[in-house]
Write a structure and sequence with these properties.
Layout (H helix, E strand, L loop, with lengths): L3 H30 L3 H14 L4 H13 L3 H14 L4 H13 L3 H14 L4 H13 L3 H14 L4 H13 L3 H14 L4 H13 L3 H14 L6 H24 L1
């Protein structure tokens, strides 16, 4: 029979271990918040040595390796976190992101699906699921996911932007233009949309409309890294308009 003194000693030992674990874990979190990922990783590892079933420490360690761009190790530790805690939304989401960063989009899909099952109201995992399917060249499925996301979260601009970018990739400029117009209705200062519409009109041969939106973009972002391209297109379109007017006058 275990004596009371032995019970107290065992309890005290467990408390010391818990205190030590928390100390390493909290220090690791603080270091990670300061972007000191190598030092943070060392402390997460110390926490794991005390408790090999601590899902939060595996998660923190995975995030450190993600930021250190060691995606293989990040996947390893995030995967362990999801094994230990089956409803760990953040771990499944970050696991999907790391698969994308590692260039394994088809491997990311199951993790984003699981993240959505855990938290269906968070649009970020749904967006990343669409991106994963897009990178796997499953374009129709990606478009369906983006559209469903737009319907469920009508103010979520990233869904409109991602769908319009894919439509442009598929040469569906008219549809893309309409979506970009919806972005401007939501946020009139979203300058990327003005450039996108300019490109769509440009591709559709609507030069006057393209010039108008290109100018709006330049007025908002004159020093953007896209500005040089837009300025060159405006010069080219002006020359094409002048040439067309000359040809019409000859006729």
């Amino acid at each position: 029979m275990v004596s009371e003194n032995t019970k107290i000693q065992n309890c005290t030992a467990e408390n010391k271990q818990t205190i030590k674990l928390n100390s390493f874990f909290l220090k690791a979190n603080a270091l990670r918040m300061k972007n000191e990922y190598k030092e943070a990783a060392s402390n997460y590892l110390n926490a794991i040595l005390i408790d090999r079933n601590d899902a939060d420490s595996y998660y923190g360690l995975g995030i450190c390796y993600k930021n250190l761009e060691n995606y293989a190790k990040a996947i390893k530790y995030l995967d362990k976190a999801t094994e230990l805690k089956e409803d760990f939304y953040e771990a499944f989401y970050e696991l999907g992101i790391c698969h994308l960063l590692e260039g394994i989009p088809c491997g990311a899909i199951k993790n984003f699906v699981r993240a959505i099952q855990i938290n269906p109201d968070n649009p970020n995992a749904i967006l990343q699921l669409g991106i994963s399917h897009e990178l796997c060249e499953e374009y129709e499925l990606a478009l369906m996911i983006y559209q469903k996301l737009i319907e469920n979260s009508p103010k979520f601009i990233k869904a409109y932007e991602q769908k319009s970018t894919l439509l442009m990739k598929l040469d569906k400029y008219k549809e893309a233009c309409q979506l970009l117009g919806e972005i401007i209705k939501i946020n009139p200062n979203y300058y990327h949309a003005y450039m996108g519409i300019g490109v769509c009109f440009d591709k559709l041969g609507k030069r006057i409309d393209a010039q108008r939106y290109y100018r709006k973009f330049l007025a908002m972002k004159p020093f953007s890294h896209h500005a040089e391209f837009v300025k060159n297109r405006l010069i080219k379109l002006k020359q094409l308009n002048k040439k067309s007017n000359t040809n019409l006058s000859i006729l």
